[in-house]
From TrEMBL:
Entry similarity comment: Belongs to the amino acid/polyamine transporter 2 family.
The entry's keywords: Membrane, Transmembrane, Transmembrane helix
PANTHER family assigned to the protein according to its UniProt record, in alphabetical order: AMINO ACID TRANSPORTER, AMINO ACID TRANSPORTER (EUROFUNG)
Bilayer topology term: Multi-pass membrane protein
Organism: Rhodotorula paludigena
Transmembrane region(s): 56-76, 82-103, 136-157, 163-184, 196-217, 245-266, 278-300, 320-339, 360-384, 390-410, 443-465
Name of the protein described by the UniProt record: Amino acid transporter transmembrane domain-containing protein
Molecular functions (GO terms): L-amino acid transmembrane transporter activity
Family matches, as Gene3D superfamilies: Amino acid/polyamine transporter I
Length: 489
């Protein structure tokens, strides 16, 4: 079942059964703490005594979950992108992508406050373009979430190969990763999953720091000559091909493409009013971490930086780093498979008492949705066993539209009905009282983001596909491959 949206989309249902139809801006947020007030949630309905509490996540844990939906596989590819683009353009483009996605993340949070019934991006699509918009975004979102999870399963197989020195077929390790993810992704609420985010965040931070310290202490990068002199050949302003440059930008988008997950995470906050605060904390940390790690690893390893970056240090450090990173890689797959399954679950049971009651239908539907998500992610990871290419392809083809071309169309100053930003504001250019400098700047910004998003989607997808084809040709790779994927640069 899917929600029926109307003007009442902005109404909160209070304890007295009456609706509050006030439209809230970023200044006038009045969504109360659902857990404390006992209100009927606009998405999950009334909480049942024996049912799951879907509104149990505080803003700090929300910031960690948001950051964990970003920090994962993306950070492992950034140093290699600096080697492709050059350090200067690499940092500038990374900061540009971070600024655009931060704005999109903020807008989507305000959109949730103004439309409490919205649970996911497809719900936004229904408000904007009716059933067709909902279904198009539903399919795209589900594929995106599972592609990210698939990338993480591939990352887990890389870690297991590195730790075990390729003890068995890579296809087996991908299957093992999928099996490990199933029980954790089956935890029913983000309140139960939030500890996975905390553990995963610490895990990846520590593993990357270990690599930086090891190389900085005099260790040679694993791909570099292990005897005699070696030259980092640092590039401060690169001259990449169009395909390579767009592939690198696509992986930047992937590293910051958690935007579609922010809505369902916000829906499980105790107090959604704190969402903007969580976004700012998340994006500030993520951006600073990406720039610091990318710069440090590239400056220390130069042309010998590996992708994923944990393979840059010597063999023993690589094995330890991948061991430390395993919880972080698993947590990415868990969060994205959970959100993918949760979308199907809410879509199927929304408006039914089975959503909040631990009935047989509730449990069968929930487990089936999670299993479907993990299975699809497993197929993606096995069919495209090229880490760098898969990350770039997912970022460009799916992450870019969600973070730019789609999200930028929803502005926080919505009228009674939520419509495309340009449709909602197009007529204002003829109104002298509203056609202010601020309006013109925002209009120009939206046009830039929208056009840039389309360009990156097309160009980045092309670059990623070229990279995948080239890697397949060089390594003889194939779907469900047994080849070791832990030592490629």
């Amino acid at each position: 079942m899917s929600p029926t949206h109307s003007h009442d989309d902005k109404m909160l249902i209070g304890k007295d059964g009456h609706a509050d139809a006030t439209v809230y801006t970023d200044v006038e947020r009045s969504t109360p703490d659902a857990s404390a007030s006992g209100e009927v949630d606009a998405v999950f309905g009334a909480r049942q005594e024996k049912g799951p509490n879907y509104r149990a996540v505080g803003w700090i844990s929300t910031a960690i979950l948001l950051a964990k939906s970003q920090i994962g596989l993306g950070v492992l590819n950034i140093p290699a992108n600096f080697a492709t683009l050059g350090l200067g353009p690499g940092i500038i483009l990374l900061l540009t992508v971070a600024a655009i996605t931060t704005w999109s993340d903020y807008v989507i949070g305000i959109f949730k406050l103004n439309h409490p019934t919205v649970y996911s991006v497809p719900d936004c699509g229904e408000l904007i373009a009716g059933p067709i918009g909902r279904e198009v975004l539903a399919v795209t979102l589900w594929i995106f979430l599972n592609c990210v999870a698939g990338s993480s399963l591939l990352g887990i197989s890389t870690a297991l190969n590195a730790i075990s020195l390729h003890a068995t077929c890579t296809a087996v390790f991908v299957a093992v990763a999928a099996i490990v993810v199933i029980p954790l992704a089956s935890l029913r609420t983000m309140g139960h999953v939030q500890w996975v985010g905390w553990v995963g965040m610490v895990s990846l931070v520590v593993s990357v720091l270990l690599v930086v310290i090891a190389i900085g202490a005099g260790g040679r990068p694993s791909p570099a000559p292990q005897e005699g002199p070696w030259d980092k050949d640092l590039v401060y302003w690169g001259n990449p091909t169009f395909g390579d440059a767009m592939s690198a930008i696509g992986s930047y988008i992937f590293a910051l493409a958690g935007t579609p997950t922010f809505l369902p995470i916000a829906s499980e906050m105790r107090n959604p009013n704190d969402f903007p605060k969580a976004v700012i904390a998340c994006q500030s940390f993520v951006t600073a971490w990406y720039v610091a790690v990318g710069t440090a690893v590239y400056m220390l390893a130069g042309q010998y930086v590996a992708s994923p970056a944990l393979g840059t240090a010597g063999v023993q450090i690589k094995r330890i780093a991948y061991g430390l990173s395993l919880p972080g890689l698993v947590s990415v797959a868990v969060i994205y498979c959970h959100l993918s399954g949760k979308y199907l679950f809410v879509r199927l049971l929304r408006g039914s008492h089975h959503l909040n009651h631990p009935t047989a239908t509730h449990w069968i539907t929930w487990i089936a949705c999670v299993l479907a998500s993990v299975l699809f992610s497993y197929i993606i990871a096995s069919a495209i066993p090229v880490f760098n290419g898969l990350v770039s392809l997912v970022g460009a083809m799916f992450g870019t539209p969600f973070c730019t071309s789609i999200i930028c169309l929803a502005d926080r100053h919505n009228s009674a009905q939520s419509v495309l930003w340009f449709f909602d504001h197009w007529s204002l250019r003829h109104n002298p009282a509203r056609n202010t400098l601020s309006y013109k700047i925002r209009f120009a910004l939206q046009v830039f983001i929208f056009v840039a998003g389309i360009f990156i989607t097309i160009g980045g997808s092309y670059g990623a596909i070229v990279d995948i084809i080239r890697t397949y040709g060089n390594s003889g790779g194939r779907a469900w491959s047994c080849a070791d994927n832990s030592g490629s640069v």
